[in-house]
Every structure is written in structure tokens, then in C-alpha cells.
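Appendix B. Extra example for self-study. Work through it before the problem class; the solution is given directly after the inputs so you can check yourself.
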Amino acid sequence: MTTLTHLVLAFAALLPTAGGVEAPPPAKLLNVVATTPDLAALARAIGGAAVDVKALAKPTEDPHFVDAKPSLVVTLNRADMLIEGGAELEMGWLPPLLESARNDRIAAGSPGRVSASTGIRMLEVPTSFDRSKGDVHSMGNPHFLLDPVNVRLVVTQIAQHMAQVDPASAALFRDNLKNFLATLEVKAAAWQKELEPFRGAKIVTYHKDFVYLAERYKLEVAETLEPKPGIEPSPIHLAAVIGTMRAQKVRVILVQPFQNRKTAETVARQTDAVVLDMPQQPGVKPNTATYFDLMDSLVHTLATALQEKK
Amino acid sequence: MRPMFRLGVLLCLAGTAGAQQSPDSTARRQQRMLDSLAAALTAVQGKLDSISSAPPPAAPARTSGAYMNVSFVGLTDFAWSSEKDLGALQVGDHEPHVRGFAIPNAELALDGTVDPYLKAFVNIVHKLDANGETGVELEEMYFLTTSLPHNLQVKGGQFFAEFGRQNPQHPHSWAFADQPLALNRMFGPEGLRSQGLRVSWLLPTSFYTEATVAVLNSAGTTTWSFRSDESAQIHAGAPVDRAVRGVGDMLYVPRLATSVDLSETQTLLFGVSGAFGPNNSGDAAKTRVYGADVYWKWKSPTARKGFPFVAFQGEGLVRRYDAASRTAVDAFRVALPAATLKDDGAYAQVQWGIRPMLVAGLRAEYATGNGVVAETPFTTAERANRNRYSTNLTWFPTEYSKFRIQYNYDHRAWVGNDHTVLLQFEFLLGAHAAHKF
Ligand SMILES: [Zn+2]
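Solution. C-alpha cells for the complete assembly:
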């Protein structure tokens, strides 16, 4: 038993220091954690001054491949609310973090947990589970925030959950939601108008991550540089992509920061196309901190390139 | 949102109208304006209420998974070595033991949520031994609480003890095809696992600090340094089998781990562990194992599929095995004196994720025993000096399969140098496994 006694003493010795490290927060803000910066931006818009929002993934990081770092366990342990994309976007890294975080305020099914994909009409839901088709998401393509109609559902859901978790600020959340939806209506019309002249235009993307944007604005994704979702581009496949791009006169390739720009540039050189930096996360490009600024930037970048390459 | 727009227009009109009219008519006008404002507001409110109170559209008919996730990992090896008896070099249970082909690990993993309070995990392992015979074992089976107060968490059942970094990992998460020598020496071919309870506490510090203590049964083949049937390989005496007399006969495994993010791209994890329990060299003999581990990882801020990255991992272990005076297992007339057998070992490895799905690895390690070996009439290979240097290259066609080639240069005291080449192929069927850090 001496061993056990030593252990107990050793851990007891840690107690006072441990208790003294955490400083009380200056104000009682709702601690909101979002898995990705785009969801965090929506949470900030709705939560306003009543919330403190953190994102687990960095803006430049592939949201499928975030490291389950111990610091994220601490962040999740302190959270009053967790907003995830859902639809298996975070399945490679979020489950072990949640297991270690031991925080039932953000357990699935509690008011503190928002799964943004709930209620979204998902595109590309596979009819069968078959990994010979690549790393397909069994619940559909999870990159749905590029469609403003989906964002309406997501922010409404966030506002509802925030009001449940923090009823005292419910009026604020509702006002912010009102303003957000009002702005969204105006903005969505402007984006529609800006991309309207390019209805039917063909684009090439690296991954299948712009399908919602394409569907909303009636663009056509002619090819992806990845032969199948999550599969590295092969020379044979790239040759086919180049062939398609030349035949169909596709002049833009959309890439995100964590995708292989060199591969895209090689294809672009051989097809007289332009590689467009289209980060889906706010904050990668200057002045894109909010969802509206981000979409303004994406739509404008795309429209300008399609105009120039027409 | 047209009512909102109308509202704005009304407010503007109200402002300009008020400035130009006589006081009397202004009052009436303002009243009318206010009335219509109120009406407009009610309309906005109604619309918003209908949005925010509308139930979210029905969830998709199909959700991922049923009540549990099922996955299967198949691991096949091809091995060749300058040592004919490969089993003498590759002593881990999930390593090839013969020249040629081997299936050292085929793992059926089940996990899921039991109820609002518990999750559960089961690992059933099949393996072919050196003679091609199939063995099946329940490797892990435990529950884990999900909602205890005060940041506590309890794990119960049979599980790998949370000692150091690699011991709790399953073979498919290892960076090399084989277990580090030091772990094999201290915890045997299977690693340290047993039946028991583990309590963990996430400390309320601003950075990650977690304290865990496991209380486990100390007897069995998977408690190598304790009351293990194979303990004769360590202390060379006839094992003393006896029943558990009290809580002092349990195995205690404490661990304290802490981690900080050094920068946006670098994370450091540091841990100290211990394992304390009785051994069966005598009636009251004890073993103490101490360990320290460090893990550092850098990952590019624009990593594609997590690449490129560089990760360093190192562990050092020290064992103090208090062997009681005992009868030599292979010479019944020889009495071995009581002694403290001192062993230690360490490894350091670097992994370089060069580009997506390609990882190179380098590992250096040693294991040594000292104390009374020279004075005893025997020397056990289990405690002799050994150094090993390994390098490997792993290619992942996708996240669900991998090919690995590894070369080991091995130096064993009194035996000599050996060269071993290991080829490994692994596949995953079923649920996507989550990656622990
Ligand atoms: Zn994965």
C-alpha cells in the first residue's frame, strides 16, 4: 500500500497549483467552439457580444485532417456549445477529442450541440457504401455552406440553440439573426446577379468541394483534379482533365490553400486556364473575416476570372 | 426580408416628415407613422417567429452507423533475416516470427455508445503463430464513462495500461513494424494490459494536463514484469504462484501527461508514468517500472491531408525488479540470492511525412540489464544488452491501406549483428477509425 499512498500524496500535491492557474473570465460570455472557422464566423454573427467563439481548425487547414491536439481537448472541455459541420466532415479527429473532453454540455442531443448539416439537403449522397469510389462521405458532400440557402438553416439553428443555452441573451440572438437574415437576403441577390451572366459556365476544382456553389449558381464542374474524392491526382487522370478542359474550353481551376497548387498550375499552363485561390474559410484572404465578406470575395474572384477568360 | 426594408424606409420618412410640419399636424402624422411602424414590426416579428420556431426539416432518412461501428484491420508481413530463428529477434506478439509470410494481427474492432452514460470498445484479435495455428484473444473490452462530474472519467474492463505513449496503441498506429525493445523487455510480447479500473482527471489548467491511475490485476501473461507466468525469463527462478491477499497485490499504473502548443504548427506532449505491483519471484517481492515519454510534432499550416509533417517520439523506461531469494528454474539445487534486477531501455524515433501518404522513419534504441546477471549461473537473453537501428518507408495508397518496408540492424551482446527486412501490408475495412494525437 505504500505505493498507493505515495501516489495519492503526489496527486494531492498537484491540487493547489492546478486550482490556481485558471483565472476567472472577465465577463460571463457563452463559450462557443466551432470545428471550422466558417462555422465560427456564423456563430460570431449570431452570438455577437454575448459569446466568445473559438474554431478548432485553422483557416488554412483541411477540415478533414485536423490533428486531435491535446490543447483542443481543453478547449472542448470548457465549451458551453459546440458547432460541428457534421455529415462525417470531422469524423477523423473530433470523436477522440470529445471522448477526452468529458463535457456533457456539448454531448450529441443536448442544446449545446449543433450539427450544422441537420436539415440540409445534402448533395452527392452515395447510394451504396463503396470505397472503390474514393473517400466518399456516406451522408453526402459536407461542403454545403457555399450555398446561402443552406446558411439560412444553419444560422437559424445556431440562434435557436444559443437561445436555449443562454436564455438571458435570447433577444440579442434573435435580433442578430434578424439582421443576418436581412443582410443575407440582400447579399444573396447580389451574388446571384454577379454570377448570372456565367450561367452554364464550366469550372474545374481540385476536390469535390464547390458542388453547392456550382448548383446554386448553375455552374458546371467539368472535372476534378482528384480522380476520386480523397485520391491523389495521377498523371493519367490529369491528362484526361487537360483533354476535357481543352475540348470544353474550361478556363478556371479552383483550389483551396491546402490543395496542391503546383498540380493545378501545371494543368492551367497546358489549358490556358487560370488558377483561382478560393479558400472556403474566412480569414485566409485579407478582409474576409465574416461569411458575407468571404462570399463577396469568392463570388467576385470567380466572376472576374470567368469574365476575363470568356 | 422585405418588411425589414420597408421598416427602414418608414423610419427615414418619419425623420424627414417631422422636421417640416407644424407641431399639431406633426403630432398626428407621427402617431400615424408610429402605428404603421408598429404594424410593420409585427409583420417582421411574425415572419421571424415563423422562421425561428419552425422545426428543422426532417433529418435524412439514413444516418451513419447503427448502434455500433464495426471495423476490421488485417495485417500481413513478409520477413527475412540473417537470423534463422527470427522469433529470437522479433519478440513482440504482433511481429513476424518466421522467415517468410506471417499474419501477426487481424483485429475486429467494435465500438459504440451504450447509453447516455457509457461508451464501450471491444477488440478481438486473431493471429497465426509460427506454426500457422490460429489464436483468438479478447485483446481489449472496456467501458468508458461520458458524463462524470469534476472532469473525471472512469474506464473499466480489460485494456492496455496508459503507460507512456506507445503501450496503449494498437499495431496499426505504430510508426514501425515492431514494438520498441524497451517495451518488449518491460511489458512482454503483448504489452502491459490487464483487467481493472482506471480513473482519469483532466486538470483545470489552461493547458492540457491529465492525471490517470489504473488499478489492475497483477497476474497473467500480459503483466510481464509482475505476477506473470513467464516471469522466470526475468528472474530465472521458479515462479511462486499465490492468490491475491489484499489491495497491495494489485498493480497500480499512474500517469501524468501534459501538452502545450509551442506555436501554430508545433505541439509538445510530455508524460511520466509508473507501474507498481508484486512480482512472483517470491512471496512479497515487488516491481517498480518508471517511464518518461515525449512527443513533438510539426505540421505545415497548409498541410494537404496532414502532410508534410515531422514528428519525434521518445520514451525511456527503468525497471527495478526486487527478486526474492528463489530456486533456479533450470537447476533445482541452485539457490539464487535476493537481488534487485535493474533494467532500462529507451528509443527515439523520427517520422517525416514527406508528401501526402508517404512517410519515412528512423529509430534508434537500446535495452540493457544489469545488477546480478554476471554473478548468477545463467544469463537470460531477456536482459542482455541490445541495440537496434531501424529505418522504414510507408506508403498509404489511401487512408485505408498501407505498404511498409523496414530494415533493422540489430546488435545483441554475446550473439552478434543481424540484418532484417520486413515488408508489411495492412488494410482497413469498415468504420473510419479516428486518429488520436
Ligand atoms: Zn482518417
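Self-check: The pocket of zinc ion is lined by residues A 92; B 399, 432, 435 (CB under 6 Å). If your reasoning did not lead you there, revisit section 3.
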